[in-house]
Each structure stands twice: as structure tokens, then as C-alpha cells.
Design goal:
With 123 residues, this protein is an alpha/beta fold. The protein has four helices and eight strands. It has helices spanning 12-20, 32-37, 73-84, 96-102, and strands at 6-10, 24-28, 38-39, 44-45, 64-68, 89-93, 108-110, 117-119. The model has no long low-confidence stretch (mean pLDDT 91).
């Protein structure tokens, strides 16, 4: 019996719903400076330049891993690496952080005045 290997695009609302239900872990594959400037709440940083699918912790158990970047390009590359390493279905946020922001979903960002990471508004 063979395992199907595929990459599934999730729209930002579906990704957020899965995160809110505790069904998934969000992994941001952007660079540290990008993550430091703004990010999705709860996202874990694992930059594409050091991304190793075999290093994912077993503690995530049955939770789905959702990959995310700025536009969906790098998370798609990371997803392909996971497929090549033997993963079955791999999920990523279609359109990345840009699509997340277009959907007006919550993000955290660096306040340039205080240097504090805080919720960003869409003014």
C-alpha cells in the first residue's frame, strides 16, 4: 500500500481555524529578521535556509504541520522538501503572510517606538 504524497494549499481562514482548534502547528519558514518584524501569533520560526524535515519534533504528535512564509513561495519549497523526505500530506498557507493580512487575521509586529512585539492593527 503506497502513501499519497501531496501539498495542500490552505486559505488563511482555514489555517487559522485549525490552529484555533489545536489541530495544527504553524511553522514560519521566513528569515529571522522578517519574523521579528511581523508574524502570525503562535508561529514557530524555522527558516528555509536551515529547514530539515527530519528534524521536526515528535512532540507535535498527530497535529498537522502548516508551513507559512511571506507569499507562499518558500513554504511551498519547504513542503516539497518534506514530501521528498517521505511526508504524506503537507499543508501550507496559500499566499502566506500577505494573504493572512489581506484576510485581516491577527498578526504581531514590532512597535518601532518601543521595540515591543504587539498586536498590529489594520487601521
Amino acid at each position: 500500500m503506497s502513501t499519497e504524497h501531496k501539498i495542500v494549499d490552505l486559505d488563511p481562514a482555514e489555517a487559522k481555524a485549525r490552529l484555533d482548534r489545536g489541530e495544527a502547528v504553524l511553522v514560519d519558514v521566513r528569515e529571522p529578521y522578517e519574523y521579528g518584524a511581523e508574524r502570525i501569533p503562535g508561529a514557530l520560526l524555522y527558516p528555509l535556509v536551515t529547514f530539515d524535515p527530519k528534524a521536526f519534533p515528535a512532540m507535535w504528535g498527530d497535529r498537522m504541520v502548516i508551513l507559512q512564509c511571506g507569499t507562499g513561495r518558500r513554504s511551498g519549497m519547504a513542503a516539497q522538501r518534506m514530501i521528498e523526505a517521505g511526508a504524506g500530506t503537507v499543508h501550507h498557507v496559500k499566499g502566506g503572510l500577505n494573504a493572512w493580512k489581506e484576510a485581516k487575521l491577527p498578526i504581531l509586529g514590532l512597535n518601532p517606538t518601543t521595540g515591543v512585539i504587539e498586536p498590529k492593527s489594520y487601521g
